[in-house]
Structures are given as structure tokens and as C-alpha cells.
Amino acid sequence: MKAFTDVCESLGVPIADDKTVGPTNQLTFLGLTIDTKNMQIKIPIDKLARLNRELKDIVIKRRVRLHELGLMYFCAKAIPCSRAFLRRFYDIIALFKSKDPKYFYCTIRVTRNLKEDIIVWLTFLDSFNGVCYISDQRWLSNTYLQLFTDSSGNSDLGIGAYVCGHWLQFRWQKKMGQSGHNAGYDIP
User: Which among 5, 12, 90, 110 has most CB atoms closer than 10 A?
Assistant: First the structure.
């Protein structure tokens, strides 16, 4: 650490002492506690309690401002697989192309599908202690796994997959095409 600070000093790079932490196994970064000894990311309990309250409020509303979803996105950074339950929110937010900061105060309609995702979040939060483990698994390529998939937007075609020498194929059901591009939510 001393060598680094000496180099910064010699180059004239200012270092804020109040924001500098020496070698440690536990560090709070952007509001999340990262514990490299136990390989955990911890979301503060007060943020989880606030998220629970906010989601309970949102689920009974008809409309919500985009900025009210911020805490859910913050927590999602630390929760593995949480993006699956934000997908519909991302789809709606993608409709807003503006870089104008005022856009965060735009309102969106809280649809039945969004409410279903919020209910999944609330169910999860009932038993979540705020601790997520950092996976030490190495990522494997689809070539290594022999896993390949493809789907067609054409309702006469469908989806196909190849896994370790085995094939899977089926046609889209008519009701799947009615859901738009999120048809995967309707696969039985």
C-alpha cells in the first residue's frame, strides 16, 4: 500500500485519506459489503427492510415512477439470478430513450405481470438474510458443455436445442405468440 501511495504522490495524483482503506478482507463498496474471506456479498438489513416496504407499496399501485424502482435494482446487483425477475421492468424502461434526468420521474403502469414479479421478490425477501455467496465456479463455454439453442419468432417454426448429443425441438404454441417476445415466460 505504501508503494502505491508513494507512486501516486510522485505523480501528483491526489488520494483522499478518508476514502482509502488498507488491505482488508471486508470492504463496503457502493453500499454493499464485500467479504473476500467468506466469499460473500452482504446487502444491509435496513435496505432490505426498506425494499420490502417499497415493493408492498408498489404492488397495490396502478402507476409508479421509474426512480421508485432504484432500490430493487441496487439489491439485484448482489442477488444471483435476480435479473430474471427484472426482465419485464427492463423491457418497459427500454421504451424510454431519453438521457434526460427528468425521465426517472416518468411514471409507468404497474401491469399484472409486473405485480407478479414483485410478488416473487416479496416472497424471496421473506426468507432472505441479505447474504449472497460469491460463486467460485468457473464459467464453461457452450462448446465445452455441448449446449446450443436457437428459436424462431416465426410461429410455424419454434425452438430447438442440442445438448451432449441429444436434440430437443418443439413448435411455439399459438398462445405463446400472444405474449410478445417474452414468450419464454409461458413455456409449460
Answer: 110
